Sequence to fold (722 residues):
Amino acid sequence: MTVGHVVVLAGTLFTIGMLGVLSRRNILIVLLSLELMLNSAALAFCAFGDMAGNLDGQIMVFFVIVVAAAEVAIGLAIVIALFRLRVTVDTDRVDLLKQ
Amino acid sequence: MTDLAWICLFAPLVAAVWIGVSPRFRAGAGAPRLAIATVLFAFVCSLIFLFSVHEPLQSSIAWMDLRTPGGGIVIELGVILDQLSILMLLVVGAVGSAIFIFALGYMKGDPSVGRFYAKFALFVFSMLGIVFANNFLMIFIFWELVGVSSYLLIGYYWQKPSAVEAGKKAFLVNRVADFGFLIGILMIWQLTGSFRFDDIQQAVEAGALTGTSGWTLGLAAFLIFIGAAGKSAQFPFHVWLPDAMEGPTPVSALMHAATMVAAGVYMVARTFFCFGWTGGVSWGDAAEVMALFGGLTAFLAATMALVQNDIKKVLAYSTLSQLGYMVMALGAGAYAVSMFHLTTHAFFKALLFLCAGSVIYGCHHEQDMRRLGGLRKKMPVTFWTFTVGMFALTGIFPFAGFWSKDLILDALHEREFHGLFLLSTLTAGLTALYMARAWFMTFFGKYRGRAEPHESPRVMTGPLVFLAICSASAGFFYGGAQGYLSRWQGMVSELDINVSIAIVSSFVVLIGYAAGWYFFFRKPEKAETVARRFPALHRLLLHKYYIDDFYLWVVRSVQQTIAVFCRLFEERVIVDGMVGGTVRAARRAGDGLRKRFQTGRITQYAYVFLAGITLLVIVMVVL
Fold:
């Protein structure tokens, strides 16, 4: 297993996450896909860190995990608030921003 | 000496401002006295200068310093004391004093006499500025000031719409002419780099201005003459002067007979070196055009005076005609003669106007000659002084006009302007005819008015007698005046009375008088027969050659059409098209962007986001 393999895996995961964000309408799935993209990025950091032979990549992973945790906390809070207000998790029905 | 000139120049301004800003002073008897004192002071100054200034003096201060490292100009205020300005100052002072005093009687009982004297003093200040000016910019500034004070005084009876209209007309016509004047000044400045008369004269006489420059100078001289034609009411700018008779009669006497209208003649005499009669440089075209316009004005105005019924209008057209003579003399290069005629004319025309004022005052503000008549016995002083003025105007030996008019004819003859010579001789006859008409209609026959006429008080007849003495005797100084003026530039050739010309012109004048006596005293009904015999000509004269109507047509049809077109262009193209178009375009663009891109759909935002990032990456990789 080389760095190349890991990077390809990370890229695949990132693309899956991106497609999820772009194509799905359920806001929970969108959030999940975002997590997937973050984690694929973390995986890529790990791989490049290993290649460079130092801990820089893994330090970055910590940051990614912290940011992801914060993001999930806020994102889920918004989803709950939204569901309470509108009784939906469909992003297409949440388009009041256009006004 | 120049200090005295400065004081003399600014004294009337101080008086005008003081009267103007202090309502209590304006209402009191002190206001007229102060104004009269300043103009008398100018008169006294002119006498002092006359006997003590032998060499031209100048003094100037930098008024506005607009110099830049590369060039720029200094706008100067200066006074010049030479024979020309002193003679003009004498005219303004003497005639002005007489008229200011006369106005005391004429304006008696007018509630706003203080306002009248404030404007009068302002006018004298402006006029003195023109007289003393030593550079073109200063003369232009005071030129405009004269226009303003003229506007103020013509519109003095502001309750009368016709007076207000006349004031506006005078101002506008003068402005049109002044535009030419200003361009002429700037052209000369561009040629010589200076506004000062002495610098310009040096530059011109050095002979460096040949070829294109000489041609430009000729054009500039013509434009300057246009300015002079505006103030001196020469054809085709003459239309304002008859209307300006709406002002009080002393105003007509001072401004529209003796001084303001003489400003144009004075200015041309002051800047004669631009008109090419010195130093062997010959671009005399401007001068010849000037002579032509002068002759045309003299003749046309004399014919128009024949059919006027308002006594002041007759005198107004007569003024036009006499100014035409002066301009003709200027065009013939006889500056001294022109200035001499200006002087004598100032005396006798002021006299005639003041007599008219006296008649109007004595007949309770009646100035239509058809309702006057028989005043010879009722107003003896006015009658005799008017007669003196009339003889002076028509050039009866030995009154003032005889000498000055004869010198002009002489000058025309010497320069071989034969057409103009004949025209002005004929005009002399017409002058006698219309003056005889006014004289007979006003002072002879039966009184046709209603209110009982009475002779005017001493304060009015006094100035009349003073001016009559001047009008009767000024002519004898023709040699002295020319000799005096020849010291001014040392180039004025002195003319002497040519006896044969004098006899011919006197004969023509006598024919004019005889015709006047026959048509307007002996058989007044004959005049109407003649008028009926030539209805077209009569109508032409009554309508003042349709020149006013032509101007009205130009304003109403041509100018109005252009104005309407411009308004449409402005409304439709500028405002609706360009301003409104910009607004509409911005709004449409905003609408489009908002509807197209701001949908509120998160996935779409994410797509845009992705596209942006992709673009950034591509840019970073490629660059």
Remarks:
- The longest strand of chain B covers residues 57-68.
- The beta strands of chain B are 57-68, 71-81.
